[in-house]
Specification:
Shape of chain C: globular
Distance between the termini of chain B: 39 Å
Number of strands of chain B: 12
Strand order of the largest sheet of chain B: 6-7-8-3-9-10-12-11
Mean pLDDT of chain B: 87
Largest interface: A-C, 43 and 44 residues
Strand content of chain C: under 5%
Low-confidence stretches of chain B: none
Number of helices of chain C: 16
Largest sheet of chain C: 2 strands, antiparallel
Chains: A mainly alpha, B alpha/beta, C mainly alpha
Structural class of chain C: mainly alpha
Helix content of chain C: over 70%
Order of helices and strands of chain C: HHHHEEHHHHHHHHHHHH
Oligomer: heterotrimer
Distance between the termini of chain C: 7 Å
Strand order of the largest sheet of chain C: 1-2
Radius of gyration of chain C: 24 Å
Chain lengths: 368, 336, 350
C-alpha cells in the first residue's frame, strides 16, 4: 500500500501548493491541517478494505466515464428486428464458443456487455448526483434548524417527520410517477438542456422522454434523501452548539453563516462523510430498484434495473445470464462504495486514532 | 508440593513480587514491577502515588481482574480465608477465586456511576451479590438485608432507596450504595480504589467517616488507594508510597508523615499546601512520570530526583530499613 | 407513563395531517385527468366520467375535495373507483397478508441476525467475525430483486420447496366463526376479529394448523430472502452493542463481586439489547409498510403492491387511504419501540 500513501501525499501537497500560490503563507498557517490529511492518507493506505474499495470505485468511475464512448454497440439498434433468434442468446465464452457476444444478449438482441457500459454511466451519475445534491441540502437545513432552534427547528422537524413517515420507496415512486410528464415538456422545448442531459447520461437527445424519466428519478431520490441528513446534522448541531468554542465565536461577533460553516460544520462532518459514502451505494441500488419497478427510463435506454426486470419475465429458462451478470455488476459497484465507507468510518473513529498516530510517527521517524 | 503457603499470625494478605505487564500496540508497558506489601487483620493501609503509578493495577491484579492486553506475569498473593486456610490468589482455580471475590474480598471502584448497572436497582445489586455466594438466598431475606446495609451506609429512607435505580440517586448516595453492596457478605478485606475522588469535599468527609466506622465494626482489613495525602493521614495505619510501578517507601502513617525519607515522598508532602500558611508559589515536582514502556534502568525516580547520585542511574536500590517497620528504596540510605 | 404516551400521541397528529395533506397536494399537482385512467377504455363515455367526477367532487375547489376524501376515509365509506369495492375491505385483506409476510420475514431476520451477532462478538476478530462482516457487506450491497430471483431459481425452479401463487387461507367456516365473534364477546371479540384478518392468525384461532404450515411453506422464501439481506446488518449491530456492553465498568465490578459467568453475561446482554430493540422495531415497521419489490417478485397480494398500483393509476382514494395507513403504522411502530425502550431502560421513563 506504499504507493497509495505516496500518491495521496503528493495529492495533498499539490493542493497545498495551489492554495499557497493564491494566498502565500497558507501552508504554515494550516500546517496542522496538512498533517491531519497526511495522517488520514496514511491510515487509509494501511486499511486493506479501504484500498480495495478505492480500487473498485476507481474502476467503476473509469468505466462510467469512458463506457458509452468505448462501447462497440449502439443501444438504439435492436438486433431482433433483423432476426428473432438474437433475443436472449446465452453467453458465448471461449474456448468452447466464439463469434457471438461474450455474455449473451438481452431482450432486444443487444450485447449485454456493451449495454452494461451504458448502464454503468447512468447508475454512476444518478447515485453521485443524488447524494451530492441531497446531502448538502439536508446538511444546510439541519445546521440552520439545530443552531437557530425555536420555530425554525419545529417546522423542520415536522416536515422531516412527514417525509420520513413514508417508506422511502413509496415516496420516490409517488414523485417519480408524477414528474416525467412535466419534465418531458421542458426537455422537448429546450434543446440545450436536452443535449446537456443526454451527454451527461451517455444517451442520445432523441430519447428525451426517457431522460425525463431519469431526471424524475433524480428529483424523487433527492427529495427522499435530504430529510435523513437534516435530522442527523440537526442532532449533532444541538450537542455541539452548547460548547464553549461556539460561544466564543458568537462573542467575537462572527456572522451566523460563518459560525455554521467554519466552526460547527467541521465538527459534525466526519460521520456525515461516512454516511454519504455508504449512501452512494444505497442510491445505486435504490435507483436500480425504481427502474426495476418500471418508473425509470424504458426501452431503448439500457438502465441496469430496467434490463433486469425485463429479463425477469423470461427467467430462468432463457435470461438467467442477464440477471446474474447485471446483478453482479450492481453488487460490485455497491460493494466498492460500502468498503470505502467502512474504511472511512474506521479512519475517523477517535478510538483507533491513537494507535494510528503512534504508528504514523514511528514510520515518519524511520524514514527520517 | 507447594512452596510454603504461610502467613504470619495476624496478617490477612501478603503480596510478594507482583509483576504485571500490558502488551499494547506501542510496546510492553511494565505497569507493576515487583511490588510487595501486606495487610494485617483490622488495619487500614494506603497505597499512595500519582495517577498512572500502578496502584489500581496492583489491587486488581490480586484477584486476577486484569484483562487483556494486561497479564499478571509473576508473584504471589497469599490470603487467609475465613476458614483459616492460606491460599495463593494468583494460582487457585477460577471457581474458588469467584467464591472469594465479593464474599471475602470486596472492591469499591472509583466511579460509582459506572460501577452500577443502570438497568437494575440497588436492591438487586445487593441481592445478587448475596445470592451468588449462598445456596438458597430468598429474595425476601436479601431485600431485608439490603435495607439494613443501606441504613448502615447512612442512606436515609433505605426502604425506598432499595428500589431505586442508579440514575435516581445523587453521586454521594451512589458511592454509599456501592459501599453497601461491597459489604453485603461481610468481607474480610476491602479494597477501596479512590472512593472519594469523584465526590464533593463535604461528602468526602462523610464517606471517610463511614468507611472508618464500618472497618471497626466489621473488623476488616482495608487497602485504600488514593493520591490525596489528607485522606491517608485520617484513615490509614500504614502507608506504601508507589512510583512508576514500584514501592519506594513504606511505613506507619506517623513515620511517613513526620519522617519521610525518600526524595519523592518528601516532595509529595511538600506539594500539599498548608491552608494556614500563606505561600507565594505552589510546590510541584519538576519533570514527568517516566514512560513505563522502556522504564529507566536503576531507580525510576532518578531522572527527576534532585539528590541523585551516579549509582542511582544504573542499579535498582533495595528496600533499606530506616526504623521499625519503616523502609525506603533509595541509595541515599545505603548502610555501608 | 400515561403522560408520556399522551405527549407522544399529540405530537403525531400534526404529522398525520401533514402527511395526508402533502399527499393530496402532490396528487393535485398532476396535470393529467385521473378519472380517465380510473375508468379504463371500456366504460369511457361522458356520462360515466361525469358521474365519477361528481361523486369524488372533482368540480369542487381542492379543499372541499380533500375534506370529502378525508371524511369518507374516517367513516370507512371510501370506494376504490378502479375496483369498485370499498377501499377498506381491500386494505384489510391485503394488510393481513403483509402482516404475515412481515412476521415470517422478521422471524428469519431475528433467527439469522441475533445468533450470528452473538457469535461474532464472542469470537471477535476470528474468521467467524470476519464472515459476519462479509455477510453484512454483501447483504447491503446486493440488489434485493437479484437475490429474490436467485433464491427462486434455487428453491423453486430447481427444487420445488415452495410455490408462488396465492396465499393460504383458512376455511370459510373458520372465517364466518371469526366474523361473528364481535357479536358474542364484547371487547375481545372485536380484537379477535381484527386479528382474524391475518389469515395465519385466523387459522391459529380455529386450530387449522395445516393452513399455518402451508403459509410458512408459501412465505418462507421471501422471509428467508429478507432475513439474508438484513441479517448481516443486524448481526453487526448486535456484535458491536454486545462488545460495548462487555467493556463497561459495571461488568468488571460484577466480576469483582464474584458473579458467575452466566450472571455477568445476563447483565451484558440486557444492556446490549437496548439499541438492538430499536433497530429491530424500525425494521419490522418497514416490513409492515409493505416490501413492494418482494411482493412484486413473489406475487404476494399485499399492501405494498396495492399502493404501487394505485400510484401508477393515479387512484387518489386508494392513495389517500394507503397513505393514512402507512402513517398510522409509522406512528404505532415508533410508539411501541419507545415503550419497549422505556420498559427495558429505566432511565427513559418519565
Amino acid at each position: 500500500m506504499e504507493f497509495v500513501y505516496k500518491a495521496l501525499k503528493r495529492l495533498v501537497w499539490f493542493y497545498a501548493g495551489i492554495r499557497e500560490k493564491f494566498s502565500p503563507g497558507w501552508i504554515t498557517k494550516n500546517s496542522s491541517r496538512i498533517r491531519e490529511w497526511e495522517l488520514m492518507a496514511y491510515a487509509y493506505s494501511k486499511s486493506p478494505i479501504g484500498v480495495i474499495g478505492g480500487i473498485i470505485v476507481f474502476i467503476v468511475f473509469i468505466l462510467a466515464v469512458i463506457g458509452p464512448i468505448i462501447t462497440w454497440e449502439p443501444y438504439w439498434e435492436y438486433k431482433i428486428v433483423i432476426n428473432e433468434s438474437y433475443r436472449y442468446m446465452p453467453p458465448c465464452l471461449p474456448p468452447s464458443c466464439s463469434g457471438n457476444p461474450l455474455l449473451g444478449t438481452d431482450e432486444w438482441g443487444r450485447d449485454v456487455l456493451a449495454m452494461s457500459l451504458y448502464g454503468m454511466r447512468i447508475s454512476f451519475v444518478i447515485s453521485i448526483v443524488v447524494v451530492l445534491l441531497g446531502a448538502p441540502l439536508g446538511i444546510v437545513l439541519g445546521l440552520l434548524a439545530g443552531y437557530k432552534g425555536g420555530v425554525v427547528d419545529e417546522v423542520l422537524m415536522r416536515v422531516t417527520d412527514i417525509f420520513l413517515a413514508f417508506p422511502g420507496l413509496v415516496l420516490a415512486i409517488a414523485f417519480a410517477s408524477v414528474l416525467p410528464q412535466r419534465l418531458r415538456g421542458v426537455l422537448e422545448a429546450n434543446s440545450m438542456l436536452r443535449s446537456f442531459f443526454a451527454s451527461l447520461f451517455g444517451l442520445r437527445g432523441a430519447e428525451y422522454g426517457q431522460i425525463a424519466a431519469l431526471l424524475s428519478i433524480w428529483f424523487a431520490m433527492v427529495i427522499v434523501w435530504w430529510p435523513g441528513y437534516a435530522r442527523i446534522v440537526r442532532g449533532s448541531t444541538l450537542s455541539v452548539k452548547e460548547m464553549p468554542f461556539i460561544e466564543a465565536a458568537k462573542l467575537s461577533g462572527l456572522s451566523t453563516w460563518s459560525i455554521l460553516f467554519r466552526h460547527l460544520l467541521p465538527n459534525v462532518i466526519s460521520p456525515i462523510l461516512v454516511m454519504m459514502t455508504f449512501d452512494i451505494a444505497t442510491a445505486t441500488l435504490f435507483a436500480a430498484a425504481l427502474s426495476f419497478l418500471g418508473l425509470g427510463p424504458q426501452e431503448p435506454v439500457p438502465e441496469l434495473g430496467f434490463m433486469i426486470s425485463k429479463a425477469g419475465q423470461f427467467f430462468p429458462e432463457r435470461s438467467s445470464h442477464v440477471v446474474i451478470y447485471l446483478g453482479l455488476l450492481l453488487l460490485f459497484i455497491a460493494i466498492g462504495w460500502n468498503l470505502l465507507g467502512d474504511a472511512l468510518r474506521d479512519i475517523l473513529d477517535p478510538r483507533t486514532r491513537r494507535a494510528i498516530e503512534y504508528r504514523f510517527e514511528k514510520e515518519k521517524k524511520r524514514r527520517g | 508440593m507447594e512452596s510454603s503457603l504461610y502467613l504470619p499470625e495476624g496478617e490477612i494478605l501478603r503480596v510478594e513480587d507482583l509483576v504485571v505487564k500490558f502488551y499494547t500496540y506501542a510496546g510492553v508497558v511494565h505497569a507493576v514491577s515487583g511490588v510487595s506489601f501486606f495487610v494485617r487483620n483490622g488495619e487500614a493501609i494506603a497505597l499512595v502515588g500519582e495517577t498512572g503509578c500502578g496502584k489500581t493495577v496492583t489491587t486488581r491484579a490480586i484477584t486476577r481482574l486484569i484483562e487483556s492486553p494486561g497479564r499478571v506475569e509473576s508473584g504471589r498473593a497469599l490470603f487467609r480465608r475465613h476458614s483459616g486456610e492460606v491460599i495463593d490468589l494468583l494460582s487457585i482455580d477460577p471457581e474458588t477465586l469467584r467464591e472469594i471475590r465479593g464474599k471475602e474480598i470486596a472492591y469499591i471502584f472509583q466511579d460509582p456511576t459506572s460501577a452500577l448497572d443502570p438497568l437494575y436497582t440497588i436492591g438487586f445489586h445487593i441481592h445478587e451479590t448475596i445470592a451468588e455466594h449462598s445456596k438458597n438466598a430468598k429474595k425476601k431475606y436479601t431485600f431485608k438485608k439490603a435495607v439494613e446495609l443501606l441504613r448502615q451506609a447512612l442512606i436515609p429512607n433505605p426502604e425506598v432507596r432499595v428500589k431505586n435505580y442508579p440514575h435516581e440517586m445523587s453521586g454521594g448516595m451512589r458511592q454509599r450504595s456501592v459501599i453497601a453492596i461491597s459489604l453485603s457478605n461481610s468481607p474480610r478485606l476491602l479494597i477501596a480504589d479512590e472512593p472519594t475522588t469523584n465526590l464533593d469535599v463535604t461528602i468526602q468527609a462523610q464517606i471517610l467517616d463511614l468507611l472508618r466506622s464500618l472497618q471497626e465494626q466489621y473488623k476488616m482489613g482495608v487497602i485504600l488507594i488514593t493520591h490525596n495525602l489528607g485522606i491517608v493521614a485520617e484513615v490509614a495505619n500504614r502507608v506504601y508510597v508507589m512510583y512508576a510501578g514500584k514501592i519506594v517507601e513504606e511505613g506507619a502513617t506517623e513515620q511517613i508523615f513526620y519522617n519521610p525519607q525518600h526524595p519523592y515522598t518528601k516532595l509529595l508532602l511538600r506539594a500539599v499546601p498548608d491552608p494556614t500558611k500563606r505561600v507565594e508559589k505552589l510546590e510541584s515536582i519538576p519533570g514527568v512520570v517516566p514512560s513505563l514502556i522502556n522504564p529507566p534502568t536503576g531507580c525510576r525516580f532518578q531522572p527527576r530526583c534532585p539528590f541523585a547520585i551516579t549509582k542511582c542511574a544504573s542499579e535498582v536500590p533495595p528496600m533499606i530499613p530506616v526504623e521499625g517497620g519503616h523502609r525506603v528504596s533509595c541509595w541515599l540510605f545505603e548502610k555501608s | 407513563m400515561a403522560s408520556f404516551l399522551a405527549r407522544r400521541l399529540i405530537t403525531f397528529i400534526p404529522t398525520l395531517v401533514g402527511v395526508l395533506l402533502i399527499t393530496y397536494l402532490i396528487a393535485y399537482a398532476i396535470p393529467a385527468d385521473p378519472v380517465r385512467a380510473w375508468v379504463g377504455e371500456k366504460l369511457m363515455n361522458p356520462q360515466t366520467l361525469e358521474q365519477i367526477r361528481t361523486k369524488y367532487k372533482f368540480n369542487a375547489p381542492w379543499y372541499e375535495q380533500f375534506a370529502f376524501l378525508v371524511q369518507q376515509l374516517l367513516t370507512g365509506q371510501l370506494d376504490d373507483p378502479v375496483r369498485h369495492r370499498n377501499v377498506f375491505t381491500e386494505i384489510t385483506s391485503r394488510f393481513g397478508v403483509t402482516v404475515e409476510v412481515a412476521i415470517v420475514g422478521f422471524l428469519f431476520l431475528v433467527a439469522i441476525g441475533i445468533p450470528l451477532g452473538l457469535l461474532a462478538a464472542v469470537f471477535k476478530d476470528t474468521p467467524v467475525d470476519f464472515a459476519v462482516r462479509i455477510m453484512a457487506l454483501v447483504g447491503s450491497s446486493l440488489p434485493s430483486f437479484v437475490l429474490y430471483y436467485f433464491l427462486i431459481l434455487l428453491l423453486f425452479v430447481y427444487t420445488k420447496t415452495t410455490y408462488l401463487a396465492g396465499i393460504p387461507e383458512p376455511t370459510i367456516a373458520c372465517r364466518t366463526t371469526i366474523s361473528t365473534l364481535p357479536l358474542r364477546i364484547p371487547f375481545l371479540g372485536h380484537l379477535a376479529s381484527a386479528l382474524g384478518n391475518v389469515p395465519m392468525f385466523a387459522a391459529i384461532m380455529c386450530r387449522e394448523f395445516s393452513v399455518v404450515a402451508d403459509t410458512f411453506k408459501r412465505l418462507y422464501l421471501p422471509g428467508l430472502a429478507l432475513g439474508l439481506l438484513n441479517g448481516g446488518f443486524i448481526a453487526r449491530i448486535v456484535r458491536n452493542s454486545l462488545l460495548d456492553a462487555l467493556s463497561a465498568e459495571f461488568i468488571l465490578y460484577g466480576k469483582a463481586r464474584g458473579l458467575r459467568r452466566l450472571s455477568v453475561w445476563k447483565h451484558a446482554l440486557k444492556n446490549a439489547m437496548v439499541p438492538v430493540i430499536t433497530v429491530l422495531g424500525l425494521n419490522f415497521g418497514g416490513l409492515l409498510s409493505g416490501a413492494i419489490i418482494a411482493e412484486t417478485v413473489f406475487n404476494i397480494p399485499g399492501i405494498g403492491r396495492y399502493m404501487y398500483e394505485a400510484i401508477m393509476r393515479l387512484n387518489f382514494p386508494v392513495i389517500i387511504a394507503c397513505t393514512f395507513l402507512v402513517a398510522v403504522i409509522y406512528i404505532t411502530v415508533n410508539l411501541v419501540v419507545d415503550i419497549l425502550y422505556a420498559i427495558i431502560d429505566p432511565r427513559i421513563r418519565y
